[in-house]
Each structure stands twice: as C-alpha cells, then as structure tokens.
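Anyone opening a protein record will find just a pair of labelled lines. With that in mind, the following record should read easily:
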Amino acid sequence: SDLAKRNSVKDENILLGAGSTEILDLVAKFVSLDKAHEPKVTSNANYVIADPSYDYWTVTLDYFGLTQKKVPLTTEKKINLKAMLEAVNHDTKLVYICNPNNPTGTICEREELMEFITKISQKTFVLIDEAYLEYTKQQSLSNLVSEHKNIIIVKTFSKIYGLAGARIGYAIANKTIIDNLANLQSNINNSVSVLSKLAAIASLKDDKFVSNCYILNEDVRQYTISELEKLNSE
C-alpha cells in the first residue's frame, strides 16, 4: 500500500483506525491486558508520560488500573528522556512519547530518541506519537519497528493533511503487535469509511498542498516567535 511504502515497511506492519485516537485507545487496551488472553494487570502496573503532554487518550489506561507516572519537562519545555528512562521499572507497561510534543511543540533530537527507544523497548512497550512530525524535517522512526518488537508508531491524517473530520490514522509496528491491536478492533481495518480512505490516498499524492501547509505553518511560527521576542524586549 501507499502507507507501507511511504514508511518503508510492509502492509502487515500497518493498521488503520478512525483517527490516531482509535489507535491510541487500542494500544492502551492492548498493554493493559498484560497478555492478550489474560485481562489482568499487576497492582503496581504503571505507564510513563511527559508532563505536560497529550494525555486525553490515557483514560483507558486509568480505567484498567494503571498508575500514571508523570515526568516533568526540562526547563526548555522539552521531553526529559533521561528522567523518563529513570521512571521506568519492572511494572511499567508503556512509555509514551509525543514527538513533537503536544502542547509545547518541542521535539526530541532523533539520535537521542533512537538511543532511548532502543533501551526502553527491551523492558516495555514504547508508543511514539508522530501526529505533528510532518511539520518538521525530522525523519519518522518507522524504520525501527522491524528491529524492535515493542515499538509502536502512531500517525494521523488529521494535521498537515487536513483530514481531521475524516477520522483516519494508523499504527506502524511489527506484525505480532498489529495482529494483537487488530484483534481488539471490532471490525478490523473497517472503522474507517471508504470515503476517508480515498481522501487519505489522494492527500498522500498532493505534495503541493502538504508543502504549502508546511511553509505557512513555518512562517506563522517564526512570526509569532519574533513578535513575542519584541514584546519581551520592551
């Protein structure tokens, strides 16, 4: 498929969902079950997330009894990967990284993030939310899913592609994880309408629109930064 080729993976590494929100919910259910056939979690089960970060989807983790371990951002409002690594213990079921982070807009250095993921994925599941990555020049981490079985990348068409109302997003992971997530989906790969799928396919081919969105966002961001710096100097 176009998505698999774009992300340098196979079709078996992709699962569509009704926006990245459904994918995040599926991942939350998956990691909360401890094992796919055992709907139990240990009493000390937890998940690690930056503070602040995109956490509206974590209600499912909370419902299943996982404790939220919030890790404050650095003074530069960046995700503190070192502190997040230290927060992980043997009861940690998931580490969530929103990159770039929502709501701060800061991004992790790719090499540092890759090193972090390599260490963490040996201990627990790592969920990388790349909803806003297309607004940067940083390359996706989708190439890591074939090497590291506990990595899940979530992406969406809601941001730079402008299809928020169409509700279409997707997960990238190894086949075993994709199969487990699909088993938790009430109608595998069919929670997205045909119309939304067609819109997504068309948007992937519309490089001019995506490029214009990137440029406009960059221009407005630089203008906002410039005006705030002027106010700060007055």
Notes: Helices lie at 2-6, 19-32, 59-63, 81-87, 110-120, 175-183, 194-205, 207-233. The chain has a mean pLDDT of 93. Strands lie at 14-17, 34-35, 38-39, 46-51, 67-72, 92-98, 125-129, 151-156, 169-172. The first strand starts at residue 14 and ends at 17.
